[in-house]
Design goal:
globular
Length: 309
């Protein structure tokens, strides 16, 4: 893992950023990959088999980003609703490509049984810049709340508002990377004027369950499926993963709605947030995508097999 500095090179330690510091931070961000080439063109190819809709636009001048959702073509009232989200943090690559891979390879297997709604890249500006925040230095995955400060979060909430509380499953695809510790946590501390407290990055896949709606059997089914694809993160010497108590192998819990996390936005009966570790010497990008795909399929399979419970 890269060495971590206790001082982030923007701002004054102990003082939250103002507009000037945010402007300096923004000036250092540069496009490193193409949302249109990597994501939009794949979505457009899917439009022959699925219903593709534009659910919002993000204006980060001079860039304009169209937000896309993919739905089952044979959508029918009465079928269970399944929501798959990816790219809430744009730099978490397998979240985006795992969601697209699911649509391309496996969604047809569920078309007659569920109504699928997939938002594969919620934060395209951050996807292009391989970053966690949006252009305003706001984390979309702490912003799924009323009067959201993040356009990315507000657009998704508006999309699912008519269906909120009706979803059977919501699986939100994420990664935990070495840069969480070397870049994003120090930046967060600097932005908020707080001291940076070093942590550890777990080596492997893990899940975040919802404290307000724990579903241990559901989480275990996903862990079992993903373990066939890549390794599960062990707990540290304190029995924790990223500072949270491990409630089952590879599973921790957060209060999703309280924290404004995407995983709590749908009010689903079964919800989880995946966390893949792409920097592991034991995992390839292909394995990370495959782990996300396996997690989505296991989530839907479990939920469908427990409809009457």
């Amino acid at each position: 893992m890269p060495a971590v500095s206790n001082f982030y090179p923007i701002g004054t330690p102990g003082t939250p950023w103002g507009n000037a510091e945010r402007a300096v931070w923004l000036s250092k961000q540069s496009r490193q990959r193409s949302y249109v080439t990597d994501v939009v063109e794949r979505i457009e190819r899917l439009s022959t088999r699925f219903d593709v809709s534009e659910y919002g636009t993000l204006n980060y001048s001079p860039d304009l980003y169209r937000l896309f959702a993919i739905r089952s073509r044979n959508w029918r009232d009465g079928k269970p609703l399944v929501l798959v989200t990816g790219g809430v943090h744009g730099y978490e690559t397998s979240g985006v490509h795992g969601a697209l891979q699911f649509i391309e390879q496996r969604a047809a297997d569920y078309a007659d049984r569920v109504n699928l709604l997939v938002a594969p890249c919620i934060s395209p500006w951050a996807y292009e810049r391989i970053h966690r925040w949006n252009a305003n230095a706001v984390d979309p995955n702490r912003s799924f709340r009323e009067n959201s400060p993040a356009g990315e979060s507000a657009a998704l909430m508006q999309l699912i508002a008519p269906m909120r509380g009706k979803f059977l499953v919501h699986i939100d695809l994420h990664e935990t990377t070495d840069t969480d510790e070397s870049e994003y946590r120090p930046a967060l501390a600097a932005r908020d004027g707080k001291p940076f407290e070093p942590g550890e990055i777990p080596d492997g896949f893990y899940l975040v369950d919802d404290t307000e709606n724990p579903q241990p059997g559901f989480q275990q089914a996903i862990i079992d499926a993903v373990a066939k694809v890549t390794h599960i993160a062990p707990s540290d010497e304190k029995g924790r993963i990223i500072g949270s108590e491990v409630v089952a192998p590879g599973v921790i819990r957060y209060p999703m709605r309280e924290l404004g996390l995407c995983g709590g936005v749908a009010g689903a009966r079964y919800s989880t947030t995946t966390e893949v570790y792409p920097d592991s010497p034991r995992a390839t990008p292909e394995q990370c995508n495959a782990a996300q795909l396996a997690a989505v399929c296991a989530a839907i399979d479990f939920a469908l097999s427990h409809l009457d419970q």
